[in-house]
UniProtKB/TrEMBL annotation:
Its cofactor is Mg(2+). This is Dihydropteroate synthase. It catalyses: (7,8-dihydropterin-6-yl)methyl diphosphate + 4-aminobenzoate = 7,8-dihydropteroate + diphosphate. The gene is folP. SUPFAM superfamilies: Dihydropteroate synthetase-like.
Amino acid sequence: MTSTSAFLTCGRHRLDLSFPRVMGILNVTPDSFSDGGRHVALDDALRHAERMLAEGAAIIDVGGESTRPGAEPVSPAAELDRVAPVVEALVRELDALVSVDTSCPEVMREVAGLGAGMLNDVRSLDREGALAAAIGTGLPVCLMHRQGEPRDMQQAPRYDVPIEEAVVDYLAERVAACEAAGLRRERLLVDPGFGFGKTVEHNLRLLNRMERLAELELPLLVGMSRKSMIGKVLERPVEERLPGGLALSALAVERGARILRVHDVAPSVDAVNMTWAVLKEGC
Ligand code: 9MG
């Protein structure tokens, strides 16, 4: 177990990270709702978030740009159009702690004004203007390792050093860049970025060696829910990956994860709490 600071200030919320928490995924990309209608989609999003909160999610992560392998980028205007009404409604109607999965400076500024409590950037603030925008929001930021862009990142990824070293070095460099620009480390989280420019073997090794990330001394967020590493090892389609994902969540908690980004909140909360009960006993 790593010792990270217990509380993270997320806008008007304080997130207790003295034990592992679950972040529920809320995708608001056009393919994520069965009905194309705008009003229905907003209502669906709200009901889905409400259910995840009732099941024990501490954070709702809203994303308006798909980061799946092969996905094409969307314009800032289109992303904002998808995300802003959902963030506003989640804050106003549910008083939820909302994280926004974005790499876009305009989106960061806008959602902070709407009451979002965290930024989740799979590009670790390396887009032009993103670092300055994130600093201006005053919100905590999750920095994630990736190699390549979603469009092409899974085309034969390779590394010259062991994957865990590549990940630690990259994240240490991004943390240093943030601190040099004035983003205090109290506002940072790190994420090894499972599936982002990594083969199945890279992902499995990275989870095995994830304790290496403890040297960064920052809260660790991980996302493996329904990812293809589960599908490939177990030969399961996406709708049959929950048991594999729960096993990975338990291992991630044992290796120091403090936030688990998942689709299936209720079973994940149980898996995380059960794992934590065992680990706590060993303290
Ligand atoms: C948006 N997104 C998709 N997968 C993710 C992961 O593994 N970590 C984080 N932080 N965000 C992710």
